[in-house]
Amino acid sequence: MFLSNVTVVGPAPAARKATALASLGYAAIVVAWASFSGAAVHAAPRAQVTENAKAWEVVTLDVEVGRTYSETGDRNPFTDVAARATFESGDERFEVPAYFAADGEAADTGASEGSIWRVHFVPPHAGTWNWKFESREGERIAVADDRDSGTAGPGDGLRGSFDVAENPNPRGLIQYVGDRYLRDAATGEAWLKAGADSPENFLAYADFDGLQEDQKARPKKGRATLHRYEPHVADFREGDPTWGDGKGRGMIGALNYLASQGVNSVYFLPNNLYGDGDDVFPYVDRKSRDRFDSSRLAQWERVFEHMDRLGISLHVILSETENQGMFEQETGEAEFAWTRKLYYRELVARFAHHRGLVWNLGEENGPHKRDEGRGEGVGRRTTDAQRKAWGAYLKQVDPWDRPVVVHTYPGMYDPVYEPLLGSESLDGASLQMGNVKQVHAETKKWIERSAKAGRQWVVNLDEIGPADVGVAPDAVDPAHDAVRREALWGNLLAGGGGVEWYFGYKHPHHDLNLEDFRSREAMWRQTAASLKILRQIPFDTMQSHDELVESKNAWCLADPGKAYLVYVRAGEKATLKVPAGTYRRTAYDPLTGDRASDDSREVESGSLELTPGDHDRAFSIVRKNE
What angle, rounded to 10 degrees, do the helices at 249-260 and 294-310 form? Predict the structure, then answer.
C-alpha cells in the first residue's frame, strides 16, 4: 500500500520493487532513485510502505543509492561510507546509523553486492516524522571522529516525512531507567528476565550462510558440529519466517518452544572466534575485520524479528574471554581499536532497534586467564578504562540507549565491578556464580553498592556453576531444588533483575552442542512460575529486607508495612516481623506459580509465622486496607 502523505525531496528516484516486509509485521518506507553519477536525475521520488506505521513499531527505511557496492569490492561499503538518517518530530530528534544491505533481500538471495542502505527506526509516539538521509565517503569514515570529514556520498540530503498512528497496545523498548529493573519505555512496566544462557553459540546454526563452508575448511578433532535444532522442527508453525529455500525451521521452532515455556531472553555471542565454540562470526571470513557478511546478518535479523514477536530479548555478548582483546591485539592499538568501533557500529545499526536487546561487553571480561596470550587474535587482560570507553561508545552510537552490562569470572567481582560503580557507561552487572549458595548475597551486594555510588545497577544472574554442570538435564536432576532455591529465588528476593540458565559441558545438550531445549523443561517451568508469582505483587516497589524474617534459609523482599514476599523451604518455618494489622497471606507453589492457600490474619504481636509443610512455598503477605 502507498503512504499518501509521504513527501520525498532529493535526487529523483527510479522505480524499484519494495522490500517485502509485510509478512514480518514491520512498517517499511522504501526510497529509490536513478543511478547517481553527478549527472542530472530523471525520475520522480517514490515512497512505499507495507503497512501503516504505529508508535513503538519498527519502521525500516531503505535507500537505493544508485551505485553498486560489494562486500569485497575496492570501495568498502562498511568502512568508507558513513550513512545515517535523522528522524524528527516536534522537539524529539533521533540520529540512526544506516548499514549496507546489499540488494535489500540478502537473507533470501544470498547477495553480497547491491545499492541498498537500510535504517531501522522506532518512533516513540504518533505524529508526523520528518527524516533526512546523510552520507559521507572517505577512508575509514565510518569510525571517524569528525562526522563531516570526507565528501558527500550518494543519496546525501534525501529527505521526506511520514505519519505514525497511535498504538492501542504499545510494547516499548526495554530500557535502563536508573532503578533495579529494566522497564518498558511505552508502559513503564518493570521487566524480569527468565532466559536461556546456553548454548552460548546459539548462532552457530547450519542454515546460516557460510558457516558450513567454514566448518569444512577447518576440520578440528572434537569440534562440535553446527546446530540444527532438529527436535524443534516440529515446533515450527505455518506462517513463521524462513529464509532462502525454506531454511531456519529448527531455530525458529526452538524459539517458539522457548516462548511457550515463558522464556523471554536468549544469551548469544555474535563473535566467538578463538573461543570455546570458535564457530560464530559476522564477517565474510574468519580473518576479515572490516567486511561483514550481508546475507548471514540479514538471516540473523530474520530470526531476531521473530524473537521480538515472541517477546524474547536479545542478550548480545560482544566478546568471549578468549577474544576480549582481539581487536586491539590485531591492530596494535592499545585501548580501543578502530575495528572494534566498526564491529560495535555495525551491530548497533543492524540490531539495536530490537525490543529487549541488552549489550554485554563480554563474557568473563577482565583479567585473562592466559594473559600472555596463546596465538594470533587471542584476548588479553582488559582494563577498567577500556570497559568504560567501550560502554560509552555503545551509548554514543546507539540511538536507543540500550542497556550496557558486563560479565566476569567468579571471584573477580570486586576488581572488575568496583571501578565501574557510578560510571555512566554501565547499567548493570551480569553475574557468573561458581557457587549457587552465594547468589543472594552477591546480588544484594552489587545492588547496594551501585545505589550508594549514585547509579543503581540492574543485577542479573547469567551463569551458574559448577562449570561442568550448570543446570543439569531434567533426566539427571528432575527437581532442580538447589538451582531453584539458591539461584532463582536467591536473585529475585535480593531485588535482582532475573536469570539465564547455563548448561555446563558434562551432560548431553550442553553449552556448545545443545539441540533440544526440552532437556531442561522443568527448569523453564519453575522459572516462569517465579515470575508469575512476582507479578501478583508490587515487586518493583519492594527491596530486600532479610532482617524482617527469622529463619536459617528464608529471604524477604518487602515494602515494610505494605507488602512482603518470603521464600521458605520444605520442612522449615519462618517468622516474619510486621506491624500490627490485618494481612492477607497467600502461599504459592514455586513449581507451578499456583496458589496453595489464601487467608487473612489479624496480627497484634508484630509477627507472623510461615510454615510451608512438605513443600517449598513462596508466601505473599499484603496488608489489607483498614
Answer: 20
DSSP 8-state symbol, 124: S
The length of the chain is: 626
Q: Report yes or no: 305 and 241 within 8 Å, Cβ to Cβ.
A: yes
| Position 371, amino acid | D
- Average pLDDT value for the chain: 90
Q: Which long-range contacts (CB under 8 A, 24 or more apart) does 151-157 make?
A: 153/65, 153/81, 153/82, 153/83, 154/11, 154/36, 154/65, 154/66, 154/67, 155/10, 155/11, 155/33, 155/36, 155/63, 155/65, 155/66, 155/83, 155/117, 157/10, 157/11, 157/132, 157/133
Predicted local confidence at residue 476, as pLDDT: 98
Query: 3-class SS at 191?
Result: strand
Site of grid cell 547468589: 439
CA 624 to chain centre: 39
Query: How many whole angstroms separate alpha carbon 336 and alpha carbon 338?
Result: 7
Q: What is the pLDDT of residues 279-302, one digit of tens each?
A: 999 999 999 999 999 999 999 999
**Which of 62, 48, 63 has its CA nearest to residue 3?**
48
Q: Distance (Å, rounded) from C-alpha 502 to C-alpha 471?
A: 6
* Mean pLDDT (whole number) for 11-21: 32
Residue 440 is predicted with a pLDDT of 98
φ/ψ of 66, rounded to 5, equals 75, 15
Q: What integer is the mean pLDDT of 5-34?
A: 37
Q: Which amino acid is at 379?
A: G
Kindly state the cell numbers that stand for 6. 509521504
Whether 590 contacts 617, CB under 8 Å? yes
pLDDT of the residue at 378: 56
The dihedrals phi and psi of 339, each to the nearest 5 degrees, come to: -70, -30
- Residue 163 · residue 127 · CB < 8 Å: yes
User: Shortest CA distance to 263 belongs to which of 501, 7, 544, 84?
Assistant: 501
- This model's pTM is above 0.85: yes
